[in-house]
User: Fold this.
Amino acid sequence: MNDEIEGQWPQFRFLTDHNVPDSVGNKLVLLGQDVVRLRDVMAADAKDPVVATAAIADNRILVSWDRDFNQQRFMSPRFDGLSRLSMSGQEMGGAARIEEVFDVIIFALRRAKGAPITIRVGEGKIQIHL
Assistant:
């Protein structure tokens, strides 16, 4: 995380999974975030464990739009360092939803102080698991 510049959000590093609409990544960029899209760094059909490992290795928060990362295999110590922003609901409203709750996302990320965190954002809800 970089120091917060007056009037701007602190910057965090995100990796958007293949199923995340470009509009969500674009919104994060407009909000001053460092975003890398999966397709720019590996094959779009890369297996989830490979994606998770890449996010951990590059100290990025994985943005996903499926529940695959809730599976038991991601509870193993191998993935203890994985932070996620898990989206659900209608994809076409994802960017607007990110903007609506971005202050809560930033609060949670700052509160985590670099520790792994999972933030679930859906229609009408947000859940934070530290």
The mean pLDDT is 90. The chain is about 30% helix and 20% strand. The radius of gyration is 14 Å.
